Amino acid sequence: MMTDKSDKIVDPKNEYWVGNIYNFRSLETLNVTKGSIKPNHIFRGGFFFNRGLDDIKSLHTEKKIQTFLDLRSSDEVPSGYRELVEGEGIAYYNSPLIPFWRSVFYLIFRVPFWTFISAFMSALSALLHFRIGLFIESMKSTSTSFPLGWFYPIIYHYGKKELNGLFSFIAEHCDNPFIFYCSFGKDRTGLIGCMIGMLLGADIEECVKEYKLSDRSLKDHMVVAKDHFKLFGGDEKGYELAKTDDKLLREFDRFIKTKYGTIENYFTKFVGLSELQITQIRKNCLVGI
Predict the structure, then answer these.
(1) Distance CA 277, CA 268 (A)
(2) Degrees (nearest 5) of the Cα angle 247, 25, 168?
(3) Up-side HSE of residue 237: CA atoms within 13 Å toward CB?
(4) How would you class 33 by CB atoms within 10 Å of its CB: exposed for 0-12, middle for 13-18, buried for 19 or more?
(5) Which of 88, 126, 177, 211 has the fewest CB atoms within 10 Å, i.e. is most exposed?
């Protein structure tokens, strides 16, 4: 029986496991205003466990992916990972999306006062007792208590340099299939997926439906998420960060409409893409236009 795109968005055929890569799917299920997104061309996923060559080869041979866009921070990327990817003839770009110092100033105005006081006192106590290890652990524990709704907006508010580098690389390499990913393939990946989708003509409701597919994809990995946050000094409540909330995308959409009017204006006036780069992305990622 034939299924239309509204059916596909609920149960996308392109969601499957590739070795240790989970929450993996194609963006082709997004409905756009003109034409459609090219099948098997734009992929997203989570690479938290990925450290081996087999998974890289699987993506390259099974899905013909030619470009890896790694949104993880340097401490999340395994040593030698770039060399493994590039050794297979795959273009690789690592773009940690959250600028550190700008995020510090941003959080000062977003995080409740007493949360900061608690974090400051713990860190100060550790330093006064020359316990550097305790200082590091206290900061890691504090960081896992910050809701992502306060943290990830830093990307679209202040990540001009990071977004310009990422989307310029996409414009240069999007003539072949590519994948973008973070650790869980949810929030950083979800926000970039929303940006790509909107740039290609999807509205916010389409982007939210696609984003929420991670609810199902990550359902079986909550235990892993708990262990992940324990490793970084957080308590078990930290795993709540791995649960999907579409507030991030909806706030981004409101921000775009209020400050820039259109996604095109956001990319040209803030991110710094040229009209030619935007046209190149659309030309290579859409069909039937």
Answers:
(1) 10
(2) 75
(3) 7
(4) exposed
(5) 88
CA torsion 50-210-267-90 (nearest 10°) is: 30
**Mind listing the pLDDT tens digit for each residue in 179-202?**
999 888 888 899 999 999 999 999
Mean pLDDT for the stretch of residues 3-31: 62
Distance CA 188, CA 130 (A): 35
pTM given for the model: 0.78
Q: How far apart are CA 3 and CA 65, in angstroms?
A: 26
pLDDT digit string, tens, across residues 220-243? 666 665 665 555 444 444 445 555
Q: DSSP 3-state assignment of 202? A: coil
Q: Which of 220, 152, 223, 222 is nearest to 182 (CA)?
A: 152
Nearest to 200 by CA among 270, 281, 142, 93: 281
84 neighbors 51 (Cβ within 8 angstroms): no
Helix (H, G, I), strand (E, B) or coil at 67: strand
CATH 3.90.190.10 fits 21-98+151-287, yes or no: yes
DSSP-based three-state secondary structure for 18: strand
